[in-house]
Amino acid sequence: MKKVAVIRGDGVGPEVVDAAFKVLGVVEPDVEWLFCDAGYDWWQEHGGDSLIPEETWDVLEEADACLKGPTTTPGGEGSPKSVAVSIRQHFDLYANVRPIKTFEGTRRPLGDVDFVCVREATEGLYFGVEIPVSDDVILALRKITRRQCHRIAKFAFEEARRRKFKAVVAIHKSNILKRTCGAFVEEARKVAEEYPEIELWEYHVDNIAQQLIKNPQIFNETVLLSTNLFMDIISEECSALVGSIGLIPSANIGDDYAMFEPAHGSAPKYAGLDKVNPTAMILASAWLLEYLGEGEKATVIRRAVEEVIAESKTVTYDLGGSAKLSEMADAVARRAERILS
Question: What mean pLDDT do residues 195-204 have?
Fold first, then answer.
């Protein structure tokens, strides 16, 4: 039996995690769930230099993967780094993956889209080192290694091959950041030589931000690839193309460990209101099952989600409906039961 560490998170995190478990309970995966603490709420009570207690690291090490609800990251000098960044760096989860695909029954702000965002998730400006040089000057270090650039480019091309997509789109700013972005795009070009059936397109980050609004369909059936901060921003823009970030699951994948979470944040102003969209968390749990080898159960969950959204009867406010979070989760669970029967 596989073991999964579960972090319920902050803000709306516990609510969306509970929603996911309503649906997981229907498909009954062969998984032992190990619930553990982490996040801003825990840190406010206990303090320290990390949002993750030592006992939770023990659980994470014991587990085969992690299912994480959204967590809040405090701002300000001296505050701890985020739960997600800490886990990514600890387990070398170098590939953050977010599928961007239109759902039937939803608004299409700029037409149908179908592509994947792949982000290097362990370095870049998220390396987290800032140096005060004087009272007026502070430097932020952007760590870029050729090894991680090569690995993430390889991952992106493998993802494009698996999905039978036509191109990998390398997003950078090498005309300004000549060494760091230069190394990134050079490694992407090297990897591209190993995949002659897949094209490599190169875009400056400011240009693609425009093109995604002007004509997003040109990126259909491609993998968008970039460094940590650039793709963090671009993938948020991409989520708007499907109408709601509440629809986007996120996977953080390494060579022998993975963490699954919704792409959205903890939205503390909505905590306890039974309001937000549970889809991203439910789909993240399905992705987890697929990673653990329970692909058929993952397919049931995804199909149930797609059918409930397509009907547009029991969906949350961001999808144009009036259903509560719990009501949409119940609808997905009932649909999964119907599919199984």
Answer: 98
